[in-house]
């Protein structure tokens, strides 16, 4: 897989050391910028797609620049780019997304028919068999197929595996089936073993693919530098045909890269946000709030899907329909338990199928998007599981379309940005390098080390469920923060309205929309609080939940009003009406000063949120 970064997209033997280093530098800068933006938006994106199109954009630019400087014909561009291999890579990624969705849907449908949602009874008879099959599949695709290129796999090991494949598989299948069935009989949940094995396999599969995306280009650049220093030639005279040779990566680099990836996944709030997007779109639970709104393509696909569903229902025999409906009966929600996004059966299918697809493609040396394969398997299994009903389908489908559109956007943006960065580096190497590096560092620091105001509030709300004290802390912490954000929206609106600045007014409207979205999202947590009945015997907890609902409902209404007011301001300026002055302007500014005073008082009360302090503040406002 490392060869894709070194020589999979362009012919390195036609580029000098300096040109290759500019290509690699452009790829790294563009990749960091793009992935940071997508993660900030909470959208899953593909490191494979971004790295392939980054390499393509930068190498195309370098080739064009080389041809332009040498007064050659631009038709020679195809001599520099491996267009056939690039098309194969892109096609493999596209096909893998479709295969992932279909595989996830088909296998989940079969598993659900076998186990049903009330799987405790069928689990006694099929649990061991399902576990044996799943673990054997993981061993085959991960170890027997996927690990052939590992340094610890000696030729004699590989030869033994190839000569005894069927025997090994049968031994594994029978052994794990018997072992799992024994665990079932002693009332141990073997789904936990499947999920743990699937998680390990998926992590192993990701490491074989995403780790290359992470360090492939930097290591290719390091190899190029070492070749140049050893050659003694000039940077503009040494041709980099050495990149066509097989790479031998030092284990220490792989270990360090792996450690960085693990730490980042564990600590990055953006990574958690991306994970939450996948969970939201595949969840069987329904709240008041969906992450994505309805879109026209989503409505069209939903309408088309309903039409197909009706047609299939008409053709399908009634006995088959009744059988499927019987097997798809939902399990009753146990009082006091918060429903999970999906159960053990779907979790097992998601992990095993994704791991099998990724490891098998890696063994065939086909680069694919691990992110989108995992995502589409989850979407396929949730679709087959009936998680997308008529109440949520349009929102879920719109979300999936948004994520898939992000794939194409990633490719277009990666190509364009890396092309432009490469052009800047070719034209103004030293100043462009310094400026671009500073921009990248500034963006990374700003987005990763500067806390968002709402981060702590979100954590408080999530932890608050079922705990009277934590619910009150969540409210007292959230109200001042969100009120401050709304005051900031008002400040920007007044400033830009009186300056007749439509562009900045629209930015203020976007910020107000984001605040409204965040409040609505946290308000929807009330519905999962309401399902948690563990402490509802305590009247104080019930009152606290109701208070949480009222506080966030009032904040949402205030956010809606501010959003509407900014809308009117944008329309007023867009229509080029006269900007307010005189008494009207003074009245609006006076209103804003009062709101600012309320915001300051809220922070004072948040320190000591007693009923007496609130009453004193209300009395002071009434007398003012």
Low-confidence stretches: none
Please report the total strand number as a whole number.
0
What fraction of residues sit in β-strands? Answer: under 5%
Distance between the termini: 71 Å
Give the overall silhouette.
globular
Counting DSSP H or I runs of 4 or more residues, the number of helices is 24
Mean pLDDT: 80
What number of domains? 2
**CA-atom Rg in angstroms:** 29 Å
The biggest sheet amounts to: none
Order of secondary-structure elements: HHHHHHHHHHHHHHHHHHHHHHHH
Secondary-structure-based class equals mainly alpha
Helix content: over 70%
Pfam family, one: PHO4
Transmembrane segments: 20-39, 51-69, 89-115, 127-147, 167-186, 193-215, 247-266, 344-364, 400-421, 427-445
Family: Belongs to the inorganic phosphate transporter (PiT) (TC 2.A.20) family.
Main location: membrane
Question: How would you describe this structure to a colleague?
Answer:
With 624 residues, the chain is mainly α. The chain folds into two domains: 2-238 and 248-449, no CATH class; 455-623. Helices cover 78% and strands 0% of the residues. The protein has 24 helices and no strands. It is globular, with a radius of gyration of 29 Å. The protein starts with a helix and ends with a helix.
């Amino acid at each position: 897989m490392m060869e894709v970064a070194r020589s999979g997209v362009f012919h390195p033997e036609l580029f000098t050391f300096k040109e290759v280093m500019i290509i690699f530098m452009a790829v790294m800068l563009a990749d960091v910028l793009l992935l940071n933006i997508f993660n900030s938006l909470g959208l899953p994106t593909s490191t494979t797609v971004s790295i392939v199109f980054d390499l393509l954009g930068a190498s195309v630019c370098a080739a064009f620049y080389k041809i332009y400087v040498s007064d050659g014909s631009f038709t020679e561009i195809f001599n520099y780019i491996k267009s056939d291999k690039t098309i194969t890579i892109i096609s493999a990624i596209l096909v893998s997304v479709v295969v992932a969705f279909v595989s996830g849907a088909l296998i989940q449908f079969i598993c659900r028919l076998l186990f049903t949602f009330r799987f405790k009874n069928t689990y006694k008879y099929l649990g061991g068999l399902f576990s044996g099959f799943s673990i054997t599949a993981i061993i085959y695709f991960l170890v027997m197929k996927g690990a052939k290129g590992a340094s610890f796999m000696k030729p004699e090991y590989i030869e033994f595996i190839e000569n005894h494949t069927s025997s090994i598989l049968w031994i594994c299948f029978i052994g794990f089936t018997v072992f799992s069935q024994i665990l079932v009989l002693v009332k141990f949940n073997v789904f936990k073993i499947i999920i743990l094995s699937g998680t390990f396999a998926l992590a192993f599969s990701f490491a074989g693919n995403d780790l290359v995306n992470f360090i492939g280009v930097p290591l290719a650049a390091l190899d190029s530098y070492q070749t140049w220093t050893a050659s003694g030639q000039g940077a503009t005279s040494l041709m980099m045909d050495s990149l066509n040779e097989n790479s031998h990566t030092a284990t220490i680099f792989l270990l360090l890269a792996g450690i960085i990836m693990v730490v980042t996944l564990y600590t990055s709030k953006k990574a958690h946000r991306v994970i939450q997007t996948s969970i939201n779109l595949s969840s069987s639970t329904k709240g008041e709030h969906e992450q994505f709104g309805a879109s026209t393509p989503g409505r069209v696909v939903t309408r088309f899907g309903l039409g197909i569903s009706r047609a299939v229902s008409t053709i399908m025999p009634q006995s088959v329909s009744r059988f499927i409906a019987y097997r798809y009966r939902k399990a009753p929600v146990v009082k006091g338990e918060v429903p999970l996004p999906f159960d053990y059966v779907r979790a097992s299918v998601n992990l095993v199928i994704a791991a099998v697809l990724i490891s098998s493609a890696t063994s065939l040396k086909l680069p694919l998007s691990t992110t989108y394969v995992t995502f589409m398997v989850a979407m396929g299994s949730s679709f087959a599981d009936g998680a997308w009903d008529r109440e949520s389908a349009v929102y879920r489908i719109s979300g999936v379309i948004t994520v898939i559109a992000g794939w194409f956007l990633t490719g277009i943006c990666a190509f364009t940005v890396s092309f432009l960065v490469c052009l800047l580096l070719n034209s103004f190497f030293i100043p462009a390098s310094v400026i671009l590096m500073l921009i990248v560092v500034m963006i990374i620091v700003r987005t990763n080390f500067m806390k968002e105001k709402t981060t702590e509030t979100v954590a408080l709300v999530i932890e608050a469920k079922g705990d009277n004290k934590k619910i009150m802390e969540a409210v007292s912490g959230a109200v001042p923060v969100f009120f401050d954000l709304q005051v900031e929206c008002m400040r920007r609106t007044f400033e830009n309205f009186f300056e007749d600045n439509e562009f900045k007014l629209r930015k203020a409207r976007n910020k107000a929309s984001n605040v409204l979205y965040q409040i609505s999202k946290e308000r929807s947590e009330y519905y999962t609080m309401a399902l948690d009945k563990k402490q509802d015997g305590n009247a104080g907890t019930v009152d606290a939940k109701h208070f949480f609902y009222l506080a966030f409902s009032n904040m949402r209404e205030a956010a809606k009003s501010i959003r509407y007011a900014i809308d009117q301001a944008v329309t007023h300026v867009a229509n080029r009406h006269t900007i307010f002055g005189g008494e009207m302007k003074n009245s609006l500014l006076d209103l804003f000063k009062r709101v600012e005073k309320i915001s300051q008082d809220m922070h004072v009360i948040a320190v000591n949120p007693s009923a007496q302090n609130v009453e004193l503040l209300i009395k002071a406002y009434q007398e003012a």
